[in-house]
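Re: your question from the hallway

Yes, I did run it. Sequences:
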Amino acid sequence: MNIGSVAEKTGVPAKTIRYYEEIGLIPPAIRAENGYRHYGRNDVETLRFIQRARRLGFSVKDVGNLLALWRDKKRASADVKAFALNHIKEVERRIAELQSIRASLIHLTDRCHGDDRPDCPILDDLAKAVVLSQ
Amino acid sequence: MNIGSVAEKTGVPAKTIRYYEEIGLIPPAIRAENGYRHYGRNDVETLRFIQRARRLGFSVKDVGNLLALWRDKKRASADVKAFALNHIKEVERRIAELQSIRASLIHLTDRCHGDDRPDCPILDDLAKAVVLSQ
DNA sequence: ATAAGCCTTCCAGTTGTGGGAATGTCAAGA
DNA sequence: TCTTGACATTCCCACAACTGGAAGGCTTAT
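Structure:
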């Protein structure tokens, strides 16, 4: 299978597959006579794994660790779980931060009448005050 | 005031102030005889504005637009409000995405017993299945 | 004189791709 | 057979928003 077919099957763009190879996330592909990269089923499976983990917000580096755990058939499931729980904590931190930002923004916009007049508490507060800060 | 004092007063690192100048977010600072950048109260105020807007998740480009709105004393408050509401929508999209990711991760970890045994639904699902997908 | 603590510019690295150029290869149709 | 289109290759640049570091200049105090 050429890189284009793999890209189609996995949803990972060809360019990204080459990048993953370059940074060592996946091993170098076997080359055909013409120099084209050649892939098999395992490669597709691996790239799907990577794609799903990426969609779950794991960094590429994290995905590397997950792949290592995946390949190590003897690791304790506790290790994997700890890793995932850690990532959940990180996601929750980001959610909390965004929610705090959202609250501040809503506070600002609520007090802005939003008509033709120029005075606007949003900019006033950005300029002068601390907005809903701790 | 030298760049270091401004950095201290505003919380924006000196390096970042130079960067903002370079990309045109703030105008080039006046230089003293010795080539040092020199700042006044307005500059501090502007950088505080920028800092607050950045903390509210506005991109640097967005901050540029906010600064323009801020300086244009005659713009309608509706313009500013629309801008902010738009940003709220964007923040809410990001929150929703993260919450969906979080739900998937929790679904995975809940089914992983997390002990010494090697079998782990987290990796199994990443490898084989579509996780809580639409 | 020298040391510390500022300041300056410039260059490179970060994360995870995407775009595009220049070039090579393959399969199919006129 | 020649050409055309759709692939593939490598290489380098760009993005966002900084951050770090090197190499050097200025100021002030000791």
